Amino acid sequence: MALVLGPGGGALADDAGVREFRGPAAPHVAEREAGGAGVRWVVWSAASVADLGNPSPLARVHDLGAVHRLLHGGRREDEAAVLAAAAGEPEPPEPRRPRPLRDHGPDVLVLDLDLGGAAPGVVGAGERAATALRVARWQEQELRALPERRARPGGIPLALQTAWSESAAALLAGDLAVTGLPLDVRAAAAVLGEADAVRETAGARLRTWWPGVDLRSPVAVLGALRGLGFDLVNTRAWQLERLRGAHPAVEELLRWRKAERLLSTYGTAWLAAHVGSDGRLRGAWSGADAAAGRMTAEAGLHNLPAELRVAVVAEPGHVLVRADLGQVEPRVLAVVSHDPGLIAATRDADLYAPVAAALRTDRPTAKVAVLAAMYGQTSGAAGVALRDMHRAYPRAMAVLTEAETAGREGRDVRTWGGRSIRVSEVAAPNADAVAARGRFARNAVIQGAAAELFKAWAATVRLALRGRGEIVLCLHDELLLHVPVEHAEAVEELLHASLDATAGRWAAGSGVRFVADVGRVQRWSEAK
């Protein structure tokens, strides 16, 4: 069922034909959702149906723009790019509005683009709905044609399941932008006030050693540190951390920088710009970034520093329920690689414990080894540990090495769920850039797959909540829900059950165990 909305009306299209309507779309949507047939709505984009309400009344969708990005990579998800791909045409320049499609039968799409700069043709709601349905069918064929590495429950290919969860993530992004994150403005202002006091006192002390030095200038600070006898190449934090205790100016500089970093992004102007009168912090959300496909947000929502988590607080009669996927990327690597040793390690709630035993080392070193393997780090202690990783988990390391080789050679890669990662568009003018491109591809195939699992989980939770709470934050591997107190226990159980159901589809037959740390708090800062 394709749905297109326009000023004063819209259109619906299905196998029975196209029907245009006048007035609000909500009654038409409610009628079909109430039918219980599990209708999946085809939309050009989640943004195009945002006016239906918050949260969106659409339970299941096929978002043509989101699926286009899954199939083809990059950041384009506009109608012109979607239509060009379906018609087998090169991607048109941005921005571009297509003329109507000429009808060449139900299985053929021919794109008529206005390339001469003249006014584009007008496409009616009915024609756009019919076109959307045809594009969705073409996209589904493309998804089904992608290599499938494991049988799926119900015979639905993983790439098609990923398309649906990516579409749901696009809807969720719209919901999050409107819902917002509950914020105690007074608590946030108090944190910022304390940071301002630290910045002032630390700055005053630094000026006793360095009068006239611009503390915001790395070059000036480097010269000042050299004047104290420190032979440094730069003033990066890890360089300064090694000098703690060597001179009081170093400690004050670190304190000043921490406060300055917080205030430069999250000052009172930030509060005024992004927190509404209802105490909700809001910013625009995207269902997938242009790299590996993680959800992203503006207004500082995805980089909210630990100091401000004390200000994220449940409203009266509610609690925050936090769920964090545990060690998700190495567990995803186990699924992707079919490595029997790593699969066995995932059965432990703490994956790094059995990995440490297999590597004959301690847990901290084992954790470094696993992370270094996925991020392509080869120097220092990581290099020694990686040799043992090759011995203990050869299949997992082979998958990572294959991805890195593809990246170095400028070949695009796909994630486990089918997302195209456009490595070929990453410039590599020298050997260092070639190596960096290889590391990017090595990590993207795992990070991207983990993002797909997370969004599939979030989509399952979104459907299962049914008015018992709302998702207010998606942070990489973490979900934060705002829930009435009386539903908290049920929602905690729902989160675990949704993860089991999602993993059962996403990692079908792999034997890999996924775990989540779930708990309720009043303030986000109280979470582990």
From TrEMBL:
The segment(s) forming the DNA-directed DNA polymerase family A palm domain are: 307-487
Write out the transmembrane intervals: none
Q: Which UniProt keywords apply?
A: DNA replication
From what superkingdom does this record's organism come?
Answer: Bacteria
Under Enzyme Commission nomenclature, its number is 2.7.7.7
Query: One Pfam family this chain carries?
Result: DNA_pol_A
Catalytic reaction annotation: DNA(n) + a 2'-deoxyribonucleoside 5'-triphosphate = DNA(n+1) + diphosphate
Q: Which SUPFAM superfamilies match?
A: DNA/RNA polymerases
The record's annotation in PANTHER family points to:
DNA POLYMERASE I, DNA POLYMERASE NU
For this entry, the protein name equals DNA-directed DNA polymerase
